[in-house]
């Protein structure tokens, strides 16, 4: 799929920063293709891009409105549809990675045809996905995992790829969600894949490689999140990872979308992920913890990294804020045996 750029990024009337993670991720990692943001008057969120209406964005060169929002169930709300209709009329294509596909909304399909525009549905898996086998395959693969969903697995993965390349190590980002696919231009929308084919889709996404480089595979969900654990398990088995990096948001009060259900302990969660990964990768090891400290001041963020790192005896950093050197040092150590997580 080729989606015309530049993009106008959609925030709409979102109030929760986690709800606009797709738009935020594109702005952070592909600022070169972003001309502005669209948000309603009551939206306090911003990507620090020029605020534009649809006609203004077209005049500035925008080709596609990216509906970079992620709501529960991935549905097109009425306000979202109305905004998309206005954007089509103004001359923009529409791209989205929601579960409810743009092409299945009759009003959008009719408007796209009328105005000569294209609807780009990102969350559409390929039709030729094999069933996973778990058979050993060559290559170095790192998988980011999490204590919850939306804790920074994509940010961590992209930061690790950049860090490896900066050290002269060949590295490729393997996207498994709508944001990663829009950032990188390809990948597998894993949560849209039929369950029986999840592990096979990851074996296909990150096949055997025979150099000394790394495939860094973007994680999804959490083994400890009742809503999304199935996707996480399929990823662990299909990735056949040599290494795991645990992602965590220390400021989060509860699992996303489930008030009253607390996040798991980092050490407990990491131990469970290692155990599950050993089905297809017996020698998997943990190499670090990545914290999302965006809601914390600098001193609090560094204290959190020190405390959690000491508790699990692993390098701990906020990759986007503090870099990934300590994690890469551990990853690239030669002859390192599997890490035992502190109880």
UniProtKB/TrEMBL annotation:
InterPro entries: DgcN-like (IPR011669), DgcN-like_C (IPR035086), DgcN-like_N (IPR035402), P-loop_NTPase (IPR027417). Residues 54-125 form the D-glutamate N-acetyltransferase-like N-terminal domain. Gene3D superfamilies: NAD(P)-binding Rossmann-like Domain, P-loop containing nucleotide triphosphate hydrolases. Signal peptide: none annotated. Residues 137-328 form the D-glutamate N-acetyltransferase-like C-terminal domain. This is DUF1611 domain-containing protein. It comes from Qipengyuania algicida.
